[in-house]
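P.,

For your records, the input lines for the assembly:
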Amino acid sequence: MRTLYERADVVPLIAEVFREFGFEGTSLSRITEKTGLGKGSLYHFFPGGKDEMARAVLAHVDGWFEREIYAPLRDGPPDDAVAQMWRGVDDYFRSGRRVCLVGAFALDETRDRFAADIASYFTRWIASLRDALMRAGWPADQAIDHAEEVVLGIQGALVLARATADEAVFGRALARFRQRLQQLPG
Amino acid sequence: MRTLYERADVVPLIAEVFREFGFEGTSLSRITEKTGLGKGSLYHFFPGGKDEMARAVLAHVDGWFEREIYAPLRDGPPDDAVAQMWRGVDDYFRSGRRVCLVGAFALDETRDRFAADIASYFTRWIASLRDALMRAGWPADQAIDHAEEVVLGIQGALVLARATADEAVFGRALARFRQRLQQLPG
DNA sequence: GTCTATACAGTGATAGAC
DNA sequence: GTCTATCACTGTATAGAC
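Structure tokens returned:
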């Protein structure tokens, strides 16, 4: 039985801990508990400690979105890419049961530590969605407006779903946005 | 010169610390630094420690919203109440430069500690806004949809504004919602 | 690579002088 | 009421055995 001994294998586990407890609330003992790896092993993989672990997690999340969401929005057929975005985010955020790690990091002083990564995650999401909408026929000003509102709305839906312990909020929000983007103007 | 020696005077200061650092990131030393009060005084006002301080802060925030936003939405002239809500939240959140403490608490395991307070803050906001919209002439299903989308959108706008360090996101989001609510259906 | 042992600063909290 | 001193504990991080 092969256990985890590659850095890439533990990053998703560490990501879950950061997602659940935030940066400050994540302790090495919790990471040890989740991964089964002692501090020695963790510092072997991440010499920079907790900070480097968080950076690896952010890079991992960013890589997933770049590959599954942003790149198709920029380069693929716009209607397919948008449809894949709805499926992708609903799946990724477990229909509202999972929280956005990047959004959570943004809210407290953790943002200052990872400001560039956090800003890039959102600006690239908005920019790639705007591109797809324009290629789908939306005028530039409406495309940017809709893109911003969708990305912002997904974050808000995740906050509200978790705050009220009502996951259905997330699905309803996605449905509203999907419907709105389907009605081309004119 | 009268300094702070009432519990009510220090709550807003403590609120700022929780808003900036989150629950886990807020330490008693940071509260001491902000308020100028030593641990002795803090535990005199809040025998329950950090937990009781956070509860007092949540109650303070809740009281402000109940008084300035929810009650007018439920009882006042709907158009005036909605207009006052836009002014109120723009002012309260400093046009996007301030974060929502309740939303931030909702994202990590802090939610479990204050679950009832956090859920109530959002469900009452949505319910009171829905009431106002219905009294303004919106059909029930659209009123609840819009209310949920506005409350959720405000949270998302705060996340996005802070994440991208672009406060203007917040103002644009408020303007979009305001415009949408002005166009009564039919 | 993975572990145990350990260093040391910082945490929330309490006691008691004034 | 406010302070200082102190508590037990947990935090991140390091060193070194195996």
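Two observations worth noting. Residues 49-75 of chain B form the longest helix (27 residues). Residues 27-29, 39-40, 43, 49-50 of chain B lie near DNA strand C (CB under 10 Å from a C1').

Regards
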